[in-house]
Write a structure and sequence with these properties.
With 255 residues, this protein is mainly α. Helices cover 72% and strands 0% of the residues.
C-alpha cells in the first residue's frame, strides 16, 4: 500500500508539472506558432512567459490568477488543466503501480489531455497529434503488451474503420457530416492502446456519455437540435473508464 501511495503522489506532482506544457502544446497545434522555439503566451494578456511559469498551478496560488509581468487578471484554465492532469496521472499510478503499463497509461493520458483541449476550443483533433500518438503507441506496444501485438494492430484498424463506416452511413442518412474525421482517427489510436475487447467497451461507454452530454446541452440551451458538439471529451473519458475498469465491466456483464 505504501508503494502504491508513493507512486500515486509522485505521479500527481508529475502531472501538475506536465499539465501546463500539454496545454501550451494543445493551443499551439491550433496555430502556426512554433511549439518548441517560442515561449508560452498568456490566455488574455499576451505576455511572453518563461518556462517555469508553465507550472501555473503555483502561479495561480501565489499570484491569485494575475500575470507576474503586467499584473493583469488571467484565465484560470491552465490551473484547472494542470490539476486535472495531476489527478489523472495519480489515478494511473493507483491503478497500475510500478508496472511498465503505467508508462503506456501516462502516454495515452497525455495525448487525450491535448486532444480534449483542442476539441473543446476549436472542435478540432489535429492529425499530427494522432499520428504522433499512433507512432509512439506502436513502439510502446511492441515492448509493453499483455495481449498479442496483432490484437493491438487489428484493434487500431477496427477502431478507425468502424467509426468511419458509422460516419459514412450517418452522413448518408442525415445528409451532413455526423462524425468528425478527428474522432475516427482518435478511435484508431484508442484501439491500438486498448486492444480489441476494451476498444468495444470504450465505444459503448463513449456513445452513452455522448448521448447524455448532448441531452444535457440541449436541455440547458447550450446547443440546438442538429448542432455539432465536441465528442472528444466523451471519447477520452469513455476510453479511460474502459482502460481502467473494462475487464471488470466485461466480467460483471458476463455473470
Amino acid at each position: 500500500m505504501n508503494i502504491i501511495l508513493n507512486i500515486t503522489l509522485y505521479l500527481f506532482f508529475l502531472g501538475l508539472l506536465v499539465g501546463g506544457p500539454l496545454t501550451v502544446f494543445a493551443l499551439r497545434t491550433l496555430t502556426a506558432e512554433s511549439i518548441v522555439y517560442s515561449r508560452a503566451l498568456g490566455y488574455s494578456c499576451g505576455c511572453q512567459v518563461k518556462p517555469y511559469d508553465l507550472a501555473s498551478l503555483f502561479s495561480f496560488l501565489l499570484l491569485k490568477v494575475k500575470c507576474r509581468y503586467c499584473d493583469e487578471s488571467t484565465s484560470s484554465a491552465f490551473f484547472w488543466w494542470e490539476l486535472a492532469t495531476g489527478v489523472i496521472f495519480a489515478w494511473a499510478g493507483w491503478m497500475w503501480g510500478w508496472q511498465w503499463e503505467t508508462l503506456v497509461a501516462l502516454f495515452i493520458i497525455s495525448i487525450l489531455v491535448i486532444v480534449v483541449q483542442t476539441d473543446v476550443h476549436a472542435m478540432v483533433i489535429p492529425n499530427k497529434v494522432i499520428f504522433y500518438g499512433i507512432t509512439v503507441g506502436i513502439i510502446l506496444r511492441i515492448f509493453i503488451h499483455d495481449l498479442p501485438l496483432w490484437n493491438h494492430l487489428i484493434s487500431m484498424v477496427l477502431g478507425g474503420g468502424i467509426f468511419y463506416l458509422i460516419s459514412v452511413v450517418s452522413s448518408f442518412i442525415l445528409k451532413k457530416d455526423a462524425i468528425g474525421g478527428g474522432d475516427i482517427k482518435l478511435f484508431a489510436f484508442i484501439g491500438l492502446i486498448l486492444g480489441f475487447k476494451l476498444l468495444f467497451i470504450s465505444m459503448l461507454i463513449s456513445s452513452l456519455l455522448g448521448f447524455l452530454f448532448a441531452v444535457a446541452l440541449l436541455l440547458s440551451g447550450r446547443i440546438r437540435l442538429g448542432s455539432h458538439m465536441p465528442y472528444g471529451p466523451c471519447i477520452a473519458l469513455g476510453s479511460l473508464i474502459s482502460y481502467g475498469w473494462g475487464n471488470s465491466i466485461a466480467a460483471w456483464y458476463m455473470i
